[in-house]
Specification:
Elements lengths: L1 E2 L2 E2 L2 H13 L3 H10 L4 E2 H8 L3 H13 L3 E6 L2 E6 L3 H23 L5
Antiparallel strand pairs: 1-2, 3-5, 4-5
Length: about 110
């Protein structure tokens, strides 16, 4: 892997791998997707995502620790929001790759005319 024609060091490769590991958990992706519409509380995220409160809190902590979400106190509630919208660009790239791969597989099964 390279950044602007520079080979990544082992330390940088490990950092990239950690970010991909954070994004490899479906419940974290569901939380990010829910937050795409704007800031939400834990209770709102529980309702939207259909996850248990303890799991939502755990996953939000991981996302926060990796600077993907930020939190702000709003009275007695804490609202979470996207800290770095770059995550949606990355998700769009991955979805594009998945779609392209699916189209290639589907093309293999098209009847010959």
């Amino acid at each position: 892997m390279t950044i602007k024609n520079q080979t990544l060091t082992a330390v940088r490769l490990a950092a990239v791998a950690r970010l991909f590991a954070v994004l490899s958990e479906p419940s974290r992706l569901a939380l990010l997707q829910a937050l795409h519409g704007g800031p939400l509380t834990v209770n709102e995220l529980v309702e939207i995502c259909g996850l248990k409160q303890a799991n939502v809190s755990k996953q939000l902590t991981i996302l926060h620790d990796h600077h993907l979400v930020r939190r702000e106190r709003d009275g007695t509630f804490i609202r979470y929001e996207i800290a770095d919208p770059m995550v949606f660009s990355l998700c769009n790239l991955v979805c594009g790759k998945i779609k392209k791969d699916a189209e290639c597989v589907a093309a293999e099964f098209q009847p010959e005319i």
